[in-house]
Structure formats: structure tokens, C-alpha cells
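Supplementary Note 3. Input sequence used for the single-chain structure prediction.
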Amino acid sequence: MKRYEATHQVGMFGIIGNLFLLVIKSMVGFVSHSQSMIADAVNSASDIFASLMTMIGNKIARVPGDKDHNFGHGKAEYIFSMFISLSMMGLSLKLFFDSLFSIIQGNEVIFSMPLLLVCLITILVKLILYFHTRKVYRKYHNILVESNMYDHRNDCVITTFTTISILLSFYGIYWVDGIVGIGISLWIFYTGIQIFLESYRVLMDSSLSEEDQNQLESLVLENGEIQKVDEVYSIPVGYRYIVVFTIFVDGKLSTSESHQIADALEEKIVKKMDKIQKAIVHVNPA
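The predicted structure, written as C-alpha cells, is reproduced below.
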């Protein structure tokens, strides 16, 4: 259960951190008429939604299997990560057109030290959130955590460019502000597409990767009594898989002996491969 507790913590920290950033970015952005800072504030709002979806999806995914969902509710992680990706893409389109109109209308940014201060605070907060989230993701490989990790990383880059546009406005170069707003919107859209495709891949019951399947077959053939492995099928149940395959053993073995080999193999695979939730082995005579 540590996986789910760590994911819940990521979502909670994300909400707190992004809510703080949303407030200060909105206040300074509207006062200074900075389109890139307003875009950054909207990005923080989308990050709050992403963190909230992380907590809800994680809460559902941790529910164990029942009569209606025999293998648990793990796919909730991918359903809610898809919600996150769609919200990111929707917001990015609005930001794109707002920034484009800002360039066309020639809106001017009022340079101020508070703008720079907010940028530095944002970079610091996001770096802290990014490194914490990356640590959790590397340990548990949760797509909800991954989407939050990318958000925090992207925000550090985005806010760096926002800082550049603010500094240029001090010298009367205002059009960069709108360009940066457009860049932010495109970055958010691209990240949303990435998360959407990864979620879609699992929800469409994609198979184990070739690398994982090779590892599986190697583990099977470590047993000298198994002469061949064939018909390997896999289906994702959340972040893990159920695998079904056939092994061929000496036809002279008794039914009891051959099934002991299969039972031991099922336990071994689940123990050795974290990605495998359940292994189902059929036995045929060679």
C-alpha cells in the first residue's frame, strides 16, 4: 500500500504548492498586465486539477479486486490521467489564442520587481515538487505521478522563459511576452498529448514490451525441465499485467509432476517481475 500512500502525498503536495503559486501569479500577472504570467497562472490552475485527479484516481485504483472487478481497479490510474491530459490540451488552446491576441493588439507589460520575484519563487517551488515527484515515480512507476512530474519539470522551463520576457520588457521589447505565452500553450498541449497516448495504450490492452517478454521467457527456460515456451499473451490491469502462456515438458511426467512445475513457475514469475500481477501457465507434453 506504500505505492498508493506515496501517490496520495504527491497529489496533496501538488495542490498546496500550485494553489500558492496560482494566487501570487494571478495577483501580480493582472496588476502588471503580463500575458505570460497570466498564462503561467492558468497553468498552475491546471496543475491543481491534475493533482486533484491524481488523488481521486489513486483512491479508486487502490481498491482491491471484488466480484465485479476480479483483478482490482488499477486502470483508474490511466482513466484519470487521460482526464488530466484532456484538461491540459483544452487550457492550452485558450492560452494560445489569448497570447496571439495579445501580440496582435500590442499589449504592453509593466515591468516590476514583484514579477521577477514571483518567477524565482515559482522555479524554487517547482524544483522541490519535481525532485520529490521524480523520486516517487522512479520507485513506483505510476502514470499519475509521472504526469505530475512532467508538469513540475515543464513549469521550471516555462517560468524561466517567462523571466526572460519580463526582463526584455524592461527595455521596451513587449512582443516577446506574447510569444512566450504561445510557447507555454504549445508546451502544455504537447505534454497533454504524451500523457493521453500513454493512457490510451494501456486502456487498449497493450501487451508487455518486447524487453519484458524476453525477460519472462528467460525466467521460464531457467528450469531445465521446460523444453519450450509458447503462446505468450498479456493484458494490463492498471500498472501491472496478467500473463498467460504455455510450457512444454516431458510427456512422461505425471499430471501431478507437470503441474507442480507450472505452480512453482507462476510463483517465481510474480516474485521476480514486479510488472506481473498474476501468471497463468498451461502445460503441454513435448
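Helices lie at 2-32, 35-61, 76-105, 113-140, 143-169, 175-203, 210-221, 255-272. The beta strands are 226-237, 240-249, 276-285.
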